[in-house]
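Notes to self after the Tuesday call (sharing in case useful).
The group wants a holo model before anyone commits to mutagenesis around the pocket. I volunteered. Ligand is tetrahydrodeoxyuridine. Logging inputs and output together so the record is complete.
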Amino acid sequence: MKKQHIGFDLEIYEGIEELSSTDRGLLEKAIEVRENAYAPYSNFQVGAAVLMENGEVVIGNNQENASYPSGLCAERVAVFQAGALYPGVAILAIAISAASNKHVVDVPAGPCGNCRQAIMEYEIKQRSPISLLLQGQEGPVYKCSSLKDILPLGFGNSFLGDS
Ligand code: THU
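Result:
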């Protein structure tokens, strides 16, 4: 038996002001579009802004449903829209902003497992990393340089033997 440590470097910024102007602009967009989340059941609003290699920014926010599993997270609304609008254009970064009507979210909320898997598909497809910027409604900003950092031992198409 041998042990292998799997870890990654997380960048932690005290606030949005500490970010580069590109990162700050993207996170500001995520905060802005969080306002349009449709989250009457959870009262938890998430905004996502996707920066494409062609400079376009594609947005998403969570869209809930009375039949709970029929709703979709902000991250998947955004990346699926990016894939639909700009097929073949790489995603450079995704900013995610989360807030609640029930309490103050002061710790960045990482994407759920399904969203990690969905974003991973694009990282594999484009063969280049997608960085993530995460923030609650206040507090620090976390930056990860690649989706695979937060989805270790992930499942991808290589297991299917088709690539
Ligand atoms: N949600 C997201 O939009 N992104 C995540 O990564 C986690 C959760 C949404 C789904 C649901 O509308 C609400 O937050 C509560 O789970």
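Two things stood out.
The chain has a mean pLDDT of 97.
Residues 39, 42, 44, 46, 62, 64, 71, 73-75, 111-112, 115 surround tetrahydrodeoxyuridine (CB under 6 Å).
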